[in-house]
Amino acid sequence: MTQRCIACHAQFPLDRIVYTCPQCDGLLEIAIEPATLAQCPWPPTRSRGVWRYEAFLPASAADAVTLGEGDTGLHAIPTLGRALGIPRLFLKHEGENPTGSFKDRGMTVGMTVARRLGARIVGCASTGNTSASLAAYAARAGLRAVVFVPRGKIALGKLAQAVVHGAEITQIDGGFDDCLRLLRDLSTARGEIYLLNSINPFRLEGQKTIAYEVCEQLGGKPPDAIVLPLGNAGNISAIWKGWRELHDAGRIQRLPRMIGVQASGAAPIARLLAGELDSPSVANPETVATAIRIGAPASAPKALAAIRESHGAAGHVSDDEILAAQARLARTEGLFVEPASAAPLAWLAKTRLDADTVVCVATGHGLKDPDAVLRSAPEMKRAAPTLESLRRVLELA
Known about the structure:
The protein has a domain at 74-100 and 206-375: Rossmann fold, CATH 3.40.50. The chain is α/β, with parallel strands linked by helices. Helix 4 packs parallel to helix 5. Helix content is 38%, strand content 15%. The chain has helices at 34-39, 78-84, 103-116, 129-141, 156-164, 176-189, 201-207, 209-217, 234-248, 268-273, 300-309, 319-333, 339-351, 371-375, 387-393, and strands spanning 2-5, 11-12, 28-31, 74-76, 88-93, 121-125, 144-150, 168-172, 194-195, 225-229, 257-263, 313-317, 357-362. It has 15 helices and 13 strands.
């Protein structure tokens, strides 16, 4: 395995700390030769979790910084499936990970590599989920954690996680993109902080295991399409990489379409593909879906490649559509996801995708960001402590 630039294809050893290509500033990925992939055991022999796929990963399970991430449920959601015209509709609930989001998959691999490389301080810019995950895994690894968040634009449930795990939190008077720019400058200028945002290719290696798990959970076959939220855009490329590796290893015979969904107030990739923008960047992104409130996705080149190579798509939905889909999922299927995770279902509700088997990826649990739900909650009923009062309030005979 090597680190390889996706633009100029320059290669670098795994033990070199580099976040983008020194030759062309292109994004990096971890390259595994097809012959090596073909030798990886499938299905894996290890029992569970992300490290079940050790043979496909650039680190050793024996050295893993782990909290038992992975093995999240692939939930059939037939009521919604019937309503949306999709015979087999599933929700891959990444909110079931240790800190409540998909970030844990990437963080277990990224933190393992950070410790192997001798890092003392790890850092991230975050809209919430990354900060929570980094803080927990840094605590597990015994490393100092620093987190940059946009002031006043992070869900309190996520911020509380970073606080309780002991991260040093700095609020930046700006957006997520400002936070990441400053962290990149600190990480590259003197190497004081090991950067663990998704621009780090080792992070995405953990996240690609979503594809592996879905494949096993569907009996060894890919779905027709994967639909997921797009924020900083690393996850769609990571999952696509997982499917490509299974295909290159001869484990699957076809590939799914990759479909990314953004909030209308923060939709640079969707608007670029629609011909409305010249570059994947919008100023002052704003949406109730805080996890995808990002105007200049760092992994946009990888995401665009995943969408185009898979003959996929990108779309955007309004905040009202997101909140309606979140409530619909909870009330018809009993599954509570954060607003960003409801964006794929909101898109399916108005697009009517022609497919038999579709997997929506819910990237975080609803308890990560309950504020939006509570702001729109109906007024609670009130009763005196008597049966007569309760019957009257509940309109019982």
